[in-house]
Amino acid sequence: SNGALGQTMTMLRNVLEVCVASNIRLVYPSGWEIYSGYAGDLYADETLPPHPLGPYAEATVHAESMIRHFADIHGLRCGLLRSSPVYGPQSDRPKFIHNFMDKARRGETIRTHRYLNGAPALDLMHVGDFVSALTQMCHADCDQAINIGTGLMTSTPKIAHILVEMAGSKSAVEQVDVEAHTARIAMNVGKANRLLGWMPRISLEQGLEEIFHCDTQSELNNCSSEGL
Question: For residues 111 and 175, what is the distance between their CA atoms, to the nearest angstrom?
């Protein structure tokens, strides 16, 4: 973690120096992790102070701070896109989606967590919506921090049940108690809509179905290759 933090900041500083020297506007993909230290349900807009939890989140906050420093001191032009968790085909993240999917296909019990304040819930955004927001930000004259996501929280048990239904599985969904609180964060996309004209278009059900069919086809192709 220490090495990754140092490398992240060093590489970012190199990029920022190039942008300043060549008068290049930067669009920097940040993330919801800057709010990960909060507990309970949050509808995060850009006025919410960062409260990171863990090295990755801390690195993200430090990166934003360095960007603001270069903007204030050197006149760097930069737009920040803080995205909720991104998922989509041909990616193994978030890993729990694929774990749930594999268990549903095999008919095995799916276990999720239940914290003191309820089940984990995420604002999952399809990669297609993320790309469209990134494209809008690249073309917009907007050097501000903007939060993007769906604005909706979906619990992990609900995601598990959706995948079980897609698989036509008999997998049970159980919850394991965790004696701690968890952050349940949805992004407020009002500013993104006002300044970029952007709104998410792909529902979670559509996105999960796409992943399910892509993974199924991939497994069939692998089986065919092994048969040959």
Answer: 5
Under the banding of pLDDT at 50, 70 and 90, the label for residue 228 is: very low
* Angstrom distance (rounded) from CA 114 to CA 154: 14
Residue, of 202 and 54, whose pLDDT is higher: 202
CA atoms of 220 and 191, how far apart (whole Å): 43
- In angstroms, rounded to a whole number, what is the distance separating the alpha carbons of residues 71 and 59? 18
pTM of model > 0.85: yes
Query: Residues 101, 113, 153, 125: what is their CA dihedral angle, to the nearest 10 degrees?
Result: -40
Cis peptide before 94 (omega within 30 of 0): yes
Residue type (1 letter), 24: I
**Is the model's pLDDT at 226 over the cut of 70?**
no
Q: What are the residue ranges of helices labelled H in the chain?
A: 2-22, 55-74, 95-106, 127-139, 156-167, 190-196, 204-227
Alpha-carbon distance of 206 to 211, in angstroms, equals 9
Q: Tokens standing for 48?
A: 């919410």
Helix (H, G, I), strand (E, B) or coil at 200: coil
Length of the chain: 228
Q: Which two tokens stand for residue 120?
A: 């984990």
61 and 52 Cβ atoms separated by less than 8 Å: yes
Residue, of 22 and 183, whose pLDDT is higher: 22
Q: Is the CA virtual torsion 49, 23, 148, 66 positive or negative?
A: negative
CB 191 within 8 A of CB 47: no
SS3 28: strand
The secondary structure of residue 109, as a DSSP letter, is P
